[in-house]
Amino acid sequence: MSGTLGDLGEFGLIGALTERVPVGPHVPLGPGDDAAVVAAPDGRVVATTDLLVEGRHFRRDWSTAYDVGRKAAAQNLADVAAMGARPTALLIGLVGPAELPVAWALELYDGLRDECAVVDAGVAGGDVVRGSAIMISITALGDLEGRPPVTRSGARPGDVVAVAGWLGWSAAGLAILSHGHRNPRAFVEAHRRPEPPYAAGPAAAKLGATAMLDVSDGLISDLGHLARASGVRVELSGELFDIPAQMRDVGRALGADPLQWVLTGGEDHALVATFPAGTPLTARWRVVGRVTEGRGVTVDGEEWSGTGGWDHFG
Amino acid sequence: MSGTLGDLGEFGLIGALTERVPVGPHVPLGPGDDAAVVAAPDGRVVATTDLLVEGRHFRRDWSTAYDVGRKAAAQNLADVAAMGARPTALLIGLVGPAELPVAWALELYDGLRDECAVVDAGVAGGDVVRGSAIMISITALGDLEGRPPVTRSGARPGDVVAVAGWLGWSAAGLAILSHGHRNPRAFVEAHRRPEPPYAAGPAAAKLGATAMLDVSDGLISDLGHLARASGVRVELSGELFDIPAQMRDVGRALGADPLQWVLTGGEDHALVATFPAGTPLTARWRVVGRVTEGRGVTVDGEEWSGTGGWDHFG
């Protein structure tokens, strides 16, 4: 479909977009009415909303519309998984200038569709309006399947801290792009299109995770939220992190510390959770530290200072 | 609280905003985690999302932040009510420039809070980011209480068409403001702050409404959606509309036809529904027409042409 949002109009575009994206198996009533109806068999629904603004959260010269769609869906679906819930549906809002090519919006929705397909979710509804800049709002819904939500506040001294998914890959990819390079592709791809370990979220809840969140701002920063909410200290061990040889190579080439990417890089949407010691964790979980009495987050015994950045580390 | 969004930062602002707005009785887990948990006792959740863009949907010189908040909440809560559901919670996204006064955002949330209070709903979560223009995304959730959703597609020949709430008040208010006036205040207030008849939505479902929607684009335009989705014709009778004397006065003063405001004005968020003939309607419902075989919407037998505007009318 050629033309711009201005040519097609908002009603025309929303029709073309919703046709493009299946509602999935959890949406008994999809777009086209005043509201959609989404299954919530648990009797509670997990809900989260995020905004993505061009220039802040993505750049059209660095990411295709398809990648922006995948990433936008991924970060919200990961938030649902981080509660221990199974994602069911997204609602999408798109603000775009009149000169935005319709093809860009269609590709964005292709990305949303394909990321939703990974977790068997669908797009239940949305809105499109014209505005001066591109902005995407995403609301994700999910089902707890009878389990309590896994919040940030349940970590207890003695728990182990474990990570599922990738850490530092998106940050390495961003560093590569920022230096004007396009390779190694694995990191650039990870920056453009994170692969959150969705299934690990409900699995962690079943394993008895005491606290969980998705790593969106950086492991240490996000664990700081968990430590604060739980009233505990999180002690990480640098040696427990597995830094791939290729990431070390990129660090050397760019004069950067790859452990910094792993500990402070956001956007990979790994899941980090705490479990009672002795929990038989599956292979997708890597133990990287433990929970103790106290406050804050340490790495190899050194405290991370918070807002001021790395005081004693890196 | 003084200062701007740039002074306070996004994290600071989201904290100040969420403190300001109660989560309400339907939100067992509110803001502060990766996602909120909202009660969905029916086992399905009604969900709808809308975007409001400054300059398109509101003007800061015509409406206070408080009024924008009330209106933004109202239009989404009305969408939930139009499905026959009871609203439970909102999720809010706010994009604003760095120079946006924090006070503006706080007042916006006061408006959201007060409109939510009308229906005993709360704000379950949200996101705040900086961007070049003010944009608000709202997702509203609701509960069907065991009833089937009332869609747009169930109207049948022989049904009556009935309206609950106000029609034409917002359009009259907009006309007054557009002419540089501020009075009569009742219409200007109705434009700034619609009062949807929320309770009439679930009540209509209980009465056996066959189809329903909220009037957001204008009665004839919205009934066009209903007629198309149901495969029927909607025949309205102009004499059945009760046009207040004060609205007639404003029409005369501005050289406008008040029936045009009533039939084509949006944003009052009245509810329009179809019921089997003989349904004992309560006083809040006013019958304004009937459903017949055919297609389209007529007023006193004349067809409304759709996009071209009034061909045979007004």
Automatic annotation (TrEMBL), chains A, B:
Binding site for Mg(2+) 5: D217
InterPro entries named among the record's database cross-references: PurM-like_C_dom, PurM-like_C_sf, PurM-like_N, PurM-like_N_sf, ThiL-like
GO molecular function, one term: ATP binding
Pfam families recorded: AIRS, AIRS_C
Catalyzed reactions: thiamine phosphate + ATP = thiamine diphosphate + ADP
Residues annotated for Mg(2+) 3 binding in this entry: D34, D79, D214
Binding-site residues, Mg(2+) 4: D34, T48, D79
Binding, substrate: H57, E267, W310
Key word Repressor present: no
Pathway noted in the entry: Cofactor biosynthesis; thiamine diphosphate biosynthesis; thiamine diphosphate from thiamine phosphate: step 1/1
Gene3D superfamilies hit by this protein: PurM-like C-terminal domain (3.90.650.10), PurM-like, N-terminal domain (3.30.1330.10)
Domain of life assignment: Bacteria
Binding-site list for ATP: Y109, G126, D127, R152, S216
Residue ranges occupied by any PurM-like N-terminal domain in the UniProt entry: 32-142
Protein's job: Catalyzes the ATP-dependent phosphorylation of thiamine-monophosphate (TMP) to form thiamine-pyrophosphate (TPP), the active form of vitamin B1.
Note, other: Reaction mechanism of ThiL seems to utilize a direct, inline transfer of the gamma-phosphate of ATP to TMP rather than a phosphorylated enzyme intermediate.
PANTHER family documented for this protein: THIAMINE-MONOPHOSPHATE KINASE
Family: Belongs to the thiamine-monophosphate kinase family.
Name assigned to this protein: Thiamine-monophosphate kinase
Gene label: thiL
